[in-house]
Amino acid sequence: MNRMIAVAVVALGLVGCSKKGPECSSVVAAVNPNTEKVKKATDNKSEKIEDTIKSLNDIAAASESAAADLAKLQLTVPEIQKFSTEYVALCKETAAAAREMAQALATTEAASKATDKAAKDGKQAGEKHDKACAAAAEDADNCKSFNAALAKIDLSKADASESVDAMAKVTFKNEAVKTEGATIVAAFKTHVKAVADSNAAQTKAESAEKKFKAISTKEDASIDTLNKFCQN
After folding, report:
1. Could you tell me which of 215, 219, 211 has the C-alpha nearest to residue 101?
2. Which end of the chain has fewer CB atoms surrounding its CB within 10 Å, N or C?
3. Would you say residue 5 lies in a domain?
């Protein structure tokens, strides 16, 4: 993720009397502490995926807290009520987008670990399978069919699962060959699923990032409007 949402701090010069000043002040008290928490989370420069996920969840929690704190205020000034309603909605959208991205990153990380394990398991099973095939004359033709199907698999293509299914249809007589063949098939299926999960998660992450950018623009505009109102 190249950019997290940057939540602007409400910095108000409170003047005037009646309800305007106190209500502007109460909004600042509700928004700023949570905004500082979001800023702290977005300032995280760690390259560790688990730290980024934690930061995103912290952003979500702080945004939800800001929404809850604002919603509790008893506001009567129409302009401030309007800001509060808009900002509560934006905070909730921020939280949802942050959690969506956190989940997407977690899924991507899990998929990466799954593909690594599948590759390791598949390689080990492949070596054992080759040895078992060499010693099982009764499965010579089956081993050739299996290896031919294996050679056609391209994990970068969308139809990779169909190629793996074709390999899985090859049957063996020898138990050792059968066992290692099944392990190879399972490893490839795990790999295919992990790639699909990772691609889907990447799409969600990109969608969440677009949401962040749109929300940030709206937040800036909303805060600017409130700043002008409260300073006049």
Report:
1. 211
2. C
3. no
CB 37 within 8 A of CB 7: no
Residues 103 and 123 reside in one and the same domain: no
Give domain status of residue 15, yes or no. no
Flag whether pLDDT at 121 surpasses 50.
yes
pLDDT of residue 9: 44
Helices (H), the chain: 20-42, 49-72, 78-135, 140-151, 160-168, 175-231
Tell me whether residue 7 is in a domain.
no
Query: For residue range 17-57, what is the model confidence (pLDDT) as tens digits?
Result: 468 888 888 998 888 888 888 888 888 778 888 999 999 99
Q: Which residue has the higher pLDDT, 104 or 160?
A: 104
Scored b (16 or more CB within 10 A) or e, 104-138 reads: bbbbbbebeebbeebeebbeebbebbeebbeebee
Show the tokens assigned to 171.
């049957």
Q: What is the distance between the alpha carbons of residues 66 and 8, in angstroms, rounded to a whole number?
A: 13
pTM tops 0.90: no
Task: Categorize the per-residue pLDDT at 3 as very low, low, confident or very high, splitting at 50, 70 and 90.
Answer: very low
Q: Which domain holds residue 107?
A: 20-111+200-231
Q: Which amino acid is at 192?
A: V
Can you tell me whether residue 94 is helix, strand or coil?
Answer: helix
